[in-house]
Amino acid sequence: MNIGIDKIGFYTPEQYVDMEKLAEVRGVEPAKYTIGIGQERMAVASLHEDAVSMAVNAALSILDDEDRKAIDLVLFGTESGVDHSKSAAVWVHHLTGIQKNARSFELKQACYSATGGIKMALGHIALNPESKALVIGSDIAKYGLNTSGEPTQGAGAVAMVISSDPRILVLDNDSAALTKDISDFWRPLYSDYAFVDGKFSNESYLSFLEDVWENYKEKTDRDLKDFEAVCFHLPYTKMAKKAILRLTKDAKEETERLMTHYENSIVYNKQVGNIYTGSLYLSLLSLLEQSSKLTEGSRIGLFSYGSGAVGEFFSGTVQPRYEDFLNKEMHEATLENRRELPIEEYEELLQKSLPKDGSDFEAKSDQLSEGRAYLVAIKENIRKYEIK
């Protein structure tokens, strides 16, 4: 049975910061941001947007009534959860109108958990071929002003419908995974911001990649020549370039092919920034929608990494007429029609936060766009979401 991605869509906030302008204000050469880490714009979430509302918006962009009836599993990967008990998936299930006889829960393992959700969905569909699963990765990467992580912030969500006989990408049952207890990036319960050992985290990422890749080759007898492209988790887009060079060890033919697709796979991420659990799948979506060289049967490698740490390498094959089931024009318009935030406004917004003392919160209605899901209020410690 073929199982994989039948639909995929994404959402990002309607405002961004220009990275060159941020660099100038920070007294940094702009090329350090635009070339050194490979970022051009950084999505910024308002107070009325969180992991839940972004996930709902991403899901609404792809779901139809047939999906709502067939989906009986909602899996939400995030490290930006809004409640220690109630899962973000429950709100998504309700706000998207999915039929009631479904399981809905949240997954956590840094940036890896959406991949974990996909793997669980594959098993569920294998046992229940008529079912569908909704898998979401949604996060806000927030490190604070004037921090080393500031230029790698971002916000957004990717939603995927997993089903049998998928129209976009069949996912192969060929994974190689690795878990190690390390401290390269973490966020304690008491902290709004993550802690990171940047150099160690980068090297851990590459070390995990090498390990799972060698394991994958042993299990499948495949090599780089069998892959048209490889997509990576992208804390920043330059990371994928480092990863390709680590895999190819400068083998010219393989390097040139993978680098060509690398450029297509980072188009969207360059405009959004780091979205943690959704970053790998935003890169995959960018590749699918921006590459003219993918053909039916092209095998795409996927490397997922979540600090702490879990890594996994797996693959999928492109399906016939996959382009017909994407929303390229809508996604490009989403990125193009955003508002640029002046740096002063961005700095003011980044220092604001929702109440932590039980106070009520209400979003300003003039900030809400038609057809979008938002956190409209917190009343008596209960979050209220609506679709305007």
UniProtKB/TrEMBL annotation:
Keywords associated with the record: Transferase
One GO BP: acetyl-CoA metabolic process
Ranges of residues in domain Hydroxymethylglutaryl-coenzyme A synthase N-terminal: 2-165
Gene3D superfamilies to which the protein is assigned, alphabetical: 3.40.47.10
Molecular function, one GO term: hydroxymethylglutaryl-CoA synthase activity
Keyword DNA damage: no
Record: residues binding (3S)-3-hydroxy-3-methylglutaryl-CoA: Y143, K242, N274
InterPro entries in UniProt: HMG_CoA_synt_C_dom, HMG_CoA_synth_N, HMG_CoA_synthase_prok, Thiolase-like
Superkingdom field: Bacteria
Domain Hydroxymethylglutaryl-coenzyme A synthase C-terminal per the UniProt entry, residue ranges: 175-248, 261-385
Annotated catalytic residues: E79 (proton donor/acceptor), C111 (acyl-thioester intermediate), H233 (proton donor/acceptor)
Family in the record: Belongs to the thiolase-like superfamily. HMG-CoA synthase family.
NCBIfam families linked to this entry: HMG-CoA-S_prok
Protein name: Hydroxymethylglutaryl-CoA synthase
Native organism: Alkalibacterium gilvum
